[in-house]
């Protein structure tokens, strides 16, 4: 297969998207993921489309509220809507509506079997491989603009200090009044851009979004006070011009992204506690106390900072804050180092009355992925648990089933992440393949016996330093020349220029 991809690469620029799609498909198959939907799932989809919509009887009617979605510009698989209601004393009632996916994708269905196989949508530079068929995820189970949709609503009463004082969860009928995008909303909230047209078109939405923004900042401040980590990594989206990869554009965090992130963190905590309160098991997302804490201590010491001998999220958060202010250019690479040393997250099954390890990076004890059931299988599992709890029905999964699902979802999420990294490396190599010999400013991001790695400052891609790596260490600035690329394998080879 890799020789076929090599041949496609050599065929010319006109097939760049096809090459990257082939690389992604190969990587998915190699990792045991399904790039295509099986025939049984597609046949089942036809019957769902004929049925068209889940039952909505008995749902609370919240369609009159100023619900909106905020996502990427081109996203159609809308999992959540948000709205806020001001309360006396500077607090607010926050509502997060989550798409009712289980209503059309029940446990044991053919589409559910495919979702179980991959456990997540896979996002690669030239293709998205959705967990659910697009006729569902971008339409029938999406909280699409100007459509009535069934949803699970997570309602939180938050005071002026950012503390959740009360919460509840229930089923409701909602209506998306405005489909908004991170970039334009973020620029507007930060005073760097005009009010988006979608905001102007809905009476009261401007005030509502400003209230949401204010409450999100209060939620965030409270989490940071308790040791939540403020990390920053570089994420770049491919830009295609007439089918040719022309650039990698860095995605910058902004207040709109923060708003959604903070609301979802709060909602996921409420979900875990809600299931516990009803003596239901849950599927928790945890990041354990770092096993490689001593390496984190060494990293801090190398930068002239001291961390305690035992894991301490508050001390680590303070260290990260100081480094962000002192060296913003290198902070993304420090963040990536800390993320790797903390270890990856995992899913665990928690029985009622048994305490899960918690999420070290978010500084929260209770955390269950619940807000993206169109894109993540654990969220769909959690939705089924919630709906059974609300209906006072039987638990839809045994503890043995949940334990097996936790292990499976952890492994498949890791497989998907590796596919995305491989496809991203190939896209970076493709972007640079015609720039052999050019020089770039770079920073060392990794140095070990396995090799020395550097990140180009523009475009933001990583490659291996194959010459001149003697004496190089993480954080060193240097100038490099591009020596070789291999699109099929995602290799970018560089050499140091000058002293």
The number of distinct helices, counting runs of at least 4 residues, comes to 14
Strand content: 15-25%
Radius of gyration: 23 Å
Distance between the termini: 41 Å
What would the principal axes of the Cα set say about the shape? globular
What summary fits the major beta sheet? 5 strands, mixed
Structural class by sheet pairing and helices: alpha+beta
Oligomer: single chain
**Strand arrangement across the biggest beta sheet:** 1-8-7-4-3
Strand segment count: 18
Helix content: 25-40%
Please tell me the overall pLDDT. 90
Poorly predicted sequence stretches spanning 5 or more consecutive residues? none
- Can you tell me the number of structural domains? 3
Short description:
The chain has 499 residues and is an alpha+beta fold.
Task: Describe the protein.
The structure is a single chain. The protein is of the alpha+beta class and 499 residues long. The protein has 3 domains: 2-280 and 368-429, no CATH class; 293-343, no CATH class; 433-497, OB fold (Dihydrolipoamide Acetyltransferase, E2P) (Beta Barrel), CATH 2.40.50.140. The protein has 14 helices and 18 strands. The strands form 6 sheets. It has a 5-stranded mixed β-sheet with strand order 1-8-7-4-3. A 5-stranded mixed beta barrel has the order 14-15-16-18-17. It has a two-stranded parallel ribbon with strand order 2-9. It is globular and about 70 Å long. 43% of the residues are buried.
């Amino acid at each position: 297969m890799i020789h076929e991809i090599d041949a496609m690469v050599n065929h010319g620029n006109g097939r760049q998207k096809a090459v990257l799609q082939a690389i992604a498909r190969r990587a998915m198959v190699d990792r045991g993921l399904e790039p295509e939907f099986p025939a049984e799932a597609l046949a089942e989809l036809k019957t769902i489309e004929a049925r068209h919509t889940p039952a909505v009887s008995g749902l609370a009617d919240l369609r009159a509220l100023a619900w909106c979605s905020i996502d990427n510009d081109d996203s159609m698989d809308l999992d959540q809507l948000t709205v806020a209601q001001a309360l006396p004393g500077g607090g607010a009632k926050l509502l997060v509506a989550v798409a009712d996916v289980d209503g059309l994708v029940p446990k044991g269905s053919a589409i559910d079997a495919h979702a179980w196989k991959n456990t997540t949508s896979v996002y690669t530079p030239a293709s998205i491989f959705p967990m659910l068929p697009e006729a569902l995820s971008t339409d029938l189970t999406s909280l699409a603009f100007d459509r009535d949709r069934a949803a699970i609503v997570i309602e939180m009463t938050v005071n002026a200090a950012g503390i959740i004082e009360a919460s509840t969860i229930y089923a409701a009928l909602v209506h998306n009044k405005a489909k908004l995008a991170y970039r334009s909303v973020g620029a507007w909230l930060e005073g760097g851009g005009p009010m988006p047209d979608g905001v102007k078109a809905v009476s009261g939405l401007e005030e509502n979004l400003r209230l949401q923004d204010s409450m999100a900042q209060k939620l965030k401040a409270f989490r940071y006070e308790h040791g939540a980590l403020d990390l920053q990594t570089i994420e770049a989206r491919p830009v295609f011009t007439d089918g040719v990869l022309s650039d990698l554009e860095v995605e910058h965090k902004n207040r709109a992204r923060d708003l959604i992130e903070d609301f979802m963190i709060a909602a996921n905590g409420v979900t875990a506690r809600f299931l516990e309160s009803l003596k239901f098991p849950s599927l928790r997302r945890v990041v354990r106390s770092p096993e490689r804490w001593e390496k984190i201590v060494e990293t801090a010491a190398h930068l002239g900072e001291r961390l305690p001998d035992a894991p301490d999220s508050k001390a680590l958060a303070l260290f990260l804050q100081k480094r962000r202010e002192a060296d913003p250019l290198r902070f993304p690479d420090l963040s990536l180092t800390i993320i790797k040393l903390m270890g990856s997250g995992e899913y665990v099954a928690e029985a009622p009355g048994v305490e899960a390890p918690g999420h070290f990076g978010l500084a929260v004890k209770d955390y269950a992925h619940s807000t993206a059931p169109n894109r993540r299988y654990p969220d769909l599992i959690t939705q089924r648990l919630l709906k059974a709890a609300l209906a006072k029905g039987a638990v839809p999964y045994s503890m043995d089933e949940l334990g097996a699902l936790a292990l499976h979802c952890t492994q498949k999420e890791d497989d998907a992440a590796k596919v995305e990294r491989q496809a991203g490396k190939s896209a970076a190599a493709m972007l640079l393949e015609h720039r052999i010999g050019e020089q770039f400013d770079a920073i060392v991001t990794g140095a070990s016996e396995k090799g020395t790695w550097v990140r180009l400052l523009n475009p933001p891609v990583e490659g291996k330093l194959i010459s001149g790596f003697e004496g190089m260490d993480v954080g060193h600035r240097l100038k490099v020349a591009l020596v070789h690329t291999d699109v099929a394998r995602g290799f970018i080879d560089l050499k140091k220029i000058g002293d």
